[in-house]
Every structure is written in C-alpha cells, then in structure tokens.
C-alpha cells in the first residue's frame, strides 16, 4: 500500500430527474471544481485503520464496536472495497475525507464520497479499476444509501463527463459547447429516497397522468442533450423552464425552490429549474455569459440562498 490521494466531482441533473427512475433519458453534468477528496496515508503506528471525516469532525477506527451513523456510508464503502475489489491491510493506514459538496442537496455528495474512496483505496493498493467497474460498485453503494436509484449520479461522477443517461443502458457522453451555469442552494436538506418514494405513491393513484409527464420530460432530456452539444444556451434555458413546470406538476418543487428559480429568471437567466430530487436542495440556472452568471449568483444569495456558485462547462 502507498500514501496517495484522489477525489470525485459534484454533479447537476440538467434534465430528467424522477422520470429517469421510470426509464426515461436524463442529462447530467459534472461540476469539476466542487469535489470530495480522500487521502490515504501510511502510518506504521496505526494498529486499526483510522477513518477521519474532517467536515463532520469524526475520527474513529475501522474495527470500532460501532460507528456514528453519519459515517455509515464511508464504512460500507470500505467494506465493499475489501470484499469485492481488493483485500485491504488490517493495519498501518489512515483514510481522511473532506468535501466541498453539501450533503443531501441534490449535488451527488453520497456518490462522490463512494467514488473518491474507491479511487483513493484502489490507487493506494495499485489496483487499476475500469470505468465500468467503478460505475457498478458505486451503484451498489447508492442502492444501500437510496433504495431504488436510477444510477445517474454515480455514473456521471464515475465518468466526470456530461452524459445522456438511461437506466440499464450504456451512458452516451455529450461533448458540450461552452455554457455558464449557476447553482443556488435553498439550505433545505432532503433524502432522495424519501422524495422518490413520495413520487411513487403519487404515481400509484394517477399512473396515466404521471407516465404522460415522464414521457414529456424524456423528450425534453433528448432535446436538451442536443442543445448542450450545440452550446445553444437559449434553447437549453427554454427546455429547463419546461422541465421545471413538469417537475412542479409531479409535486417535487417547493416555495423555496420557486423563489430561487424566479430570482434567477428576473436577473436574466435563460432558464432555471430545481436539480436532483427536489422538495429542497438546489436549483440550477443557465446564463448567456460569465458576468450575467456572477450577477445571478449574487442575487440568489440576496433572495435567500444559503450558498450559490457559478460553473463553466468547457
Ligand atoms: O437528489 P439527487 O441528486 O440524489 O438526485 C436524484 C435524482 C432522482 O432522479 C430523483 C433519483 C434517481 O435515482 O435518479
């Protein structure tokens, strides 16, 4: 084993959240400059591997009798690596994790955590892991975490490329034109699995209408993938607005999300929508240039966002 370091990006779902769970296509992009990092350090004095989650201010050992629930996902990731990818030494190393990705805000923090740890520990063991394997293992972990995920989060973060994603199919990479996005965080945490379950319950009592909406969202995602490839921000924005209307209709928006979507639109966004499971978490807007994007990010804070940032694709 060697001392090393790896990381994984955040992600934004541009089109197709929820509909993707029901087999429709969706579009997601990585946010390269917002990342979760994992470092492995060799330390001969360590008798039981030390796990340090810096942001949570937790330090424990791998074989401790019990672990705080907040690091359960980290422990499960290490167990999966040991059981299925590569046998890890029983002593002599520590894992430190820190992250710029807010938790439970629809930016892919759980998938980024698994993927950063898998990357770091396999690298430390000098074991090469193919992209497909990384997608599969991180999907197993997403299932433990979320119940019935589509696989979009762990796929886009494993590849760190914009993708058109469809459940149970190989993702298609999208080579995007230049685009400026703004993310605004409502500050409201939500559990993806809970929101997905609420949508499933609502669909049960009105399946025909929900499936019609999901089909419309699927078409928006296909059109959105083309707009992204063409660098057509105006078209992309229009499609984002349409997607947001349909997300409202399936009941996953919220007053706080609407407020930020409206604030972005008033300041000149070409389109805006919630991103991820909804009912809280983040929204995303697209702007025609970097200056407008910065202005929108500043206005989102004034409108009540707890954090906002811009990101440029390509
Ligand atoms: O909230 P997030 O970032 O975990 O995104 C969830 C996207 C959903 O379509 C709602 C669920 C899924 O598994 O695809």
Q: What is the secondary structure topology, with strand pairs?
A:
Elements: E1 4-15, E2 26-42, E3 50-53, E4 58-61, H1 72-85, E5 93-99, H2 109-124, H3 131-146, H4 152-159, E6 163-165, E7 172-173, E8 179-185, H5 192-204, H6 207-230, H7 233-249, H8 255-266, E9 271-275, E10 282-287, H9 290-302, E11 307-313
**How many separate domains?**
2
Distance between the termini: 35 Å
Ligand types: (3R)-3-hydroxy-3-methyl-5-(phosphonooxy)pentanoic acid
Total count of helical runs of at least 4 residues? 9
Strand content: 15-25%
Please give the radius of gyration in angstroms: 20 Å
Low-confidence stretches: none
Order of helices and strands: EEEEHEHHHEEEHHHHEEHE
Number of strands: 11
State the CATH topology of the largest domain: Ribosomal Protein S5, domain 2
Name the CATH class of the largest domain: Alpha Beta
Please state the oligomeric state of the protein chains shown: single chain
Helix content: 40-55%
Q: Can you tell me the overall shape?
A: globular
Largest sheet: 7 strands, mixed
> On the 0-100 scale, what is the average pLDDT?
96
- What's the architecture of the largest domain, going by CATH? 2-Layer Sandwich
What would you call the structural class?
alpha+beta
Description:
The chain has 314 residues and is α+β, with helices and mostly antiparallel strands. The protein folds into 2 domains: 4-172, Ribosomal Protein S5, domain 2, CATH 3.30.230.10; 176-313, GHMP kinase, C-terminal domain (Alpha-Beta Plaits). The protein has helices at 72-85, 109-124, 131-146, 152-159, 192-204, 207-230, 233-249, 255-266, 290-302; strands spanning 4-15, 26-42, 50-53, 58-61, 93-99, 163-165, 172-173, 179-185, 271-275, 282-287, 307-313. The strands form 2 sheets. Strands 1, 2, 3, 4, 5, 6 and 7 form a 7-stranded mixed beta sheet that branches. It has a 4-stranded antiparallel beta sheet with strand order 9-10-8-11. A hairpin with a 6-residue loop joins strand 6 and strand 7. Helix 1 packs across helix 2 (109-124). The longest helix has 24 residues, at 207-230. The radius of gyration is 20 Å and the shape is globular. The protein starts with a strand and ends with a strand. The model has no long low-confidence stretch (mean pLDDT 96). The site of (3R)-3-hydroxy-3-methyl-5-(phosphonooxy)pentanoic acid has 15 residues, from helix 4 and helix 5.
């Amino acid at each position: 084993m060697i001392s090393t370091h790896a990381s994984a990006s955040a992600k934004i779902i541009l089109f197709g959240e929820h509909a993707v769970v029901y087999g429709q296509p969706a579009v997601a992009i990585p946010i390269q400059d917002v990342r979760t990092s994992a470092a492995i350090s060799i330390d001969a004095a360590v008798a039981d591997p030390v796990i340090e989650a810096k942001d949570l201010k937790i330090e424990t050992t791998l074989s401790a009798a019990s672990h705080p629930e907040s690091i359960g996902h980290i422990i499960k990731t290490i167990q999966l690596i040991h059981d299925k990818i590569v046998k890890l030494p029983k002593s002599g190393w520590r894992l430190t994790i820190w992250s710029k990705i807010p938790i439970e805000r629809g930016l892919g923090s759980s998938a980024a955590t698994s993927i950063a740890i898998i990357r770091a520990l396999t690298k430390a063991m000098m074991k090469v892991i193919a992209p497909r394997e990384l997608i599969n293992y991180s999907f197993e972990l997403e299932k433990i975490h979320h119940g019935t995920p589509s696989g979009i989060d762990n796929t886009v973060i494993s590849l760190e490329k914009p993708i058109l994603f469809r459940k149970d199919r190989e993702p298609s990479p999208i080579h995007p034109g230049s685009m400026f996005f703004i993310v605004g965080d409502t500050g409201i945490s939500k559990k993806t699995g809970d929101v997905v379950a609420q949508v499933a319950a609502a669909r049960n009592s009105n399946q025909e209408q929900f499936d019609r909406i999901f089909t419309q969202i699927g078409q928006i995602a296909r059109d959105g993938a083309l707009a992204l490839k063409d660098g057509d921000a105006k078209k992309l924005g229009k499609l984002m607005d349409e997607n947001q209307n349909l997300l409202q209709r399936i009941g996953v928006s919220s007053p706080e999300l609407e407020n930020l979507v409206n604030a972005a639109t008033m300041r000149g966004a070409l389109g805006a929508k919630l991103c991820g499971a909804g009912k809280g978490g983040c929204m995303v807007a697209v702007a025609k240039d970097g200056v407008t994007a910065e202005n929108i990010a500043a206005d989102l804070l004034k409108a009540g966002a707890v954090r906002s940032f811009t990101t440029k694709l390509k």
